[in-house]
Amino acid sequence: MFFKKRYFKFARSSNNSLYLFNVFLNFNNFYFEFLGFFGFYKIYFKYFYFFKKNNFINIFNLKKFFFFKKLTGFIYSYFFNIIKGLIFNYEKILIFRGLGYKVILRSSYLYFYLSYSHPCVHKIPSDIFIKVLNDNNNEISVKSNNKQRLGEICLLFKKLKKIDIYKGKGIFYKNEKIILKVFKKK
């Protein structure tokens, strides 16, 4: 059974509370399930237990080791990222700079033309949404409801071509700034 409250307080302590809208939550023992506008997650944590009282959800670690006390903060931030992704979707924009650098999207495959003799072909995973933003095919928008997965895919795309710090060629995030190095003068 999913809880159908309008919002939940997700608190690590009484001072820090996080209000989450439009997400249905279900948990029993070590399973935690999220259902939002952009998808569904089911997570299993062996050493953590979830307790709901009114609109508060608290997480307790069953073993009182020092490592698990540190890990509790990570669990809260991990849950926050999941729930935020189910409500809003995360997005990163990649820009391809260089002569002949472009991306073509065909059905569920991406073709990267990066001045190699052949295109690099990648299958788009089912949880990633990609859109080509302009007519020159040198900007793409990568969206996902999982922040970690989005970062992994964007890093995979960036590793296809190493950035040239002398000429400013390569694959960049939209807000990424690089300082170009100066050529040696003879």
What tags apply to this protein structure?
alpha+beta, four-stranded mixed β-sheet, 41% strand, elongated
Q: How would you describe what is shown here?
A:
The N and C termini lie far apart (74 Å). The protein has helices at residues 66-88, 147-158; strands at 7-11, 17-21, 24-28, 31-36, 39-44, 48-53, 56-61, 90-97, 102-106, 109-113, 120-123, 128-132, 139-144, 170-173. A 4-stranded mixed β-sheet has the order 2-1-7-6, covered by helices on one side. The chain is an alpha+beta fold and 186 residues long. It is built from 2 helices and 14 strands. Strand 1 and strand 2 (17-21) form a beta hairpin. The model has no long low-confidence stretch (mean pLDDT 81).
Largest sheet at a glance? 4 strands, mixed
The arrangement of helices and strands along the chain is EEEEEEEHEEEEEEHE
The total strand number stands at 14
Gross morphology is elongated
DSSP helix count?
2
Contiguous low-pLDDT stretches (5 residues minimum) are: none
Structural class: alpha+beta
Helicity, in percent? Answer: 10-25%
The overall average pLDDT, rounded, is: 81
- As a percent range, the share of strand residues is 35-45%
**Global Rg:** 21 Å
Terminal CA distance: 74 Å
Q: What strand line-up does the widest sheet have?
A: 2-1-7-6
